[in-house]
Amino acid sequence: VLQKWVNREISNFDYLIQLNTMAGRTYNDLAQYPVFPWILRDYTSEELDLNNPAVFRDLSKPIGCSVVFIKIYFFRYENFEDPLGMIDKFHYGTHYSNAAGVMHYLIRVEPFTTLHIHLQSGRFDCADRQFHSIPATWQALMDNPNDVKELIPEFFYFPDFLENQNGFNLGQLQISKEVVNDVVLPKWAHSPEDFIYKHRKALESEYVSAHLHEWIDLIFGYKQRGPAAVEALNVFY
């Protein structure tokens, strides 16, 4: 599979799906759901220029590792000590992939809607905490050192999860009073289908093809654990 990917006989999408499968990740287990990377950081431009490296995220760093937060993570790791000696030091107290995160993204489609409601004791979570906007979700990652969620494969092939086709009452945002309905898309996407098309195109772009191995090192490779993980600020609770 690696050689096929290197020879460009299979796409970046296919290679990531294969890696997830070999790592034991599966659609049948929300706690080990397939994980895909955030690949863009431009969610505000009118047009998406895939020839401009500045529109892409730095795939060599964990998603939460913006320059602003590096000192926070470093301090947390250096100063953490479990009195019982049971818990190892870590940079992040949460994880880039978990069941709640999958339900968060897929809240508009069953069976994830029902699973979300069960998780929230029989009701929808507060509207402000729901997945209501792709640009806002990216900005939250940049503003909150405790949010380190990566993406799920659906962001690259499944437009339906971006629409509230079942008409669920997801509430309204507290400050703007905006009703949470379909997911708000980046300006450069004119419909859910257009977003998926351009996002998939970005995944298969030259820039991502040249740098995807750096993210794979963090999630599936040698930077998962040990000294390389510490150096890469990639140690999770």
From TrEMBL:
PROSITE patterns per UniProt: BEACH
Molecular function terms, GO-annotated: protein kinase binding
UniProt cross-references to SMART domains, sorted A to Z: Beach
Pfam families per the UniProt record, alphabetical: Beach
Record domain BEACH: where: 1-237
SUPFAM superfamilies hit by this protein: BEACH domain (SSF81837)
Keywords, comma-separated and alphabetical: WD repeat
InterPro entries: BEACH_dom, BEACH_dom_sf, BEACH_Domain
GO biological process per UniProt: intracellular protein localization
UniProt name for this protein: NBEL1 protein
